[in-house]
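Appendix B. Raw example, untouched.
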Amino acid sequence: MRVIEDEDALLPPSPKGPYKFDYSQLSDEERKHYDLLSPEEKTQYQDEEKAIYDHMNSPAVLSGLQGEIGQIVHEVSQETPRDGVNTERIKEGLFAMGEVDPQDTGEDGDFEGNDITSTAHGELEQHREMREYARIAAWEMPMLSKLAKPFVLPGAEKPLRFRYTNYMGETHPAENKVVLEFCTRDLPDLTSAQRDKLIKLVGVRYNPETDLVKMSCEMFETQAQNKRYLGDLVDTLMAEAKDPTDMFEDVPFDFRHHRYKPKMEFPEGWKLTEGRKAQLQATWRRRALADKQREKEGKLVDGVEVIEKMLENVVAQEVAPRVAVKGPVGKARLKRLPK
């Protein structure tokens, strides 16, 4: 490696005299730009070039440049090895990656089996990511409240509704999918015949119950591209619907793709009207008064007491007394007494 001995060779040259505009010193791009200027703009361009030239060749600027260049040359000369001196280069290790001076770190040591497994490294990485999101939630997300805007319902001038799906940083094959919905009655400047033609063009994407057209796209890599494609498709459908060449009047509507779901309605007789509520309350009051009268007369049956007595009788019948009878072989055997 060559060592810089003459520092003056790198210093900027001294000014050669006052500024003089030279058209031949301009590059091709600068000449094209200069030729397009008016006479007043050319004069202004030359004045600006002269001001830059005078500033860069002023004694203060030249002195500062000479000092900086001299310092850089001196530092490079001190760090560069002299000829004939062999400096052994240390191989950069894994721990030296990203360091300002990898030579200070040196090579990696021998692996002694004291590191954690790859699964544990994955757990640590997941923990770091969770802590990063926790810091964002604690320190950065509260600042977003300053940018909050009140929700305003879209007006009639925005009939298209786009739906996106975000999986919160995870990679998913459906994250670029965009779904478009619009009502045919909300589209502007469409006559009844043009609207019927549009319904026939969209085919199975039309819902006759809700008058909604639903389309989706996931052909492209980004959501913006898929949204743009759906927007262009709607423009094409609108242009075709307004084309008077063929209005598809001889083509009937075909809604066989749609399955009508039965809608259950609550019976009118089951609804609690004011009269029905008053009738029920009167019935409840009559039953309460009748129960109180039977309780006074001792005719009110206590269901809990009846159930307890029945259970006692069942247990008494099932659990019969057993006696030990000595058998012929001298062993005790059990015999149930007759009822």
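End of appendix B.
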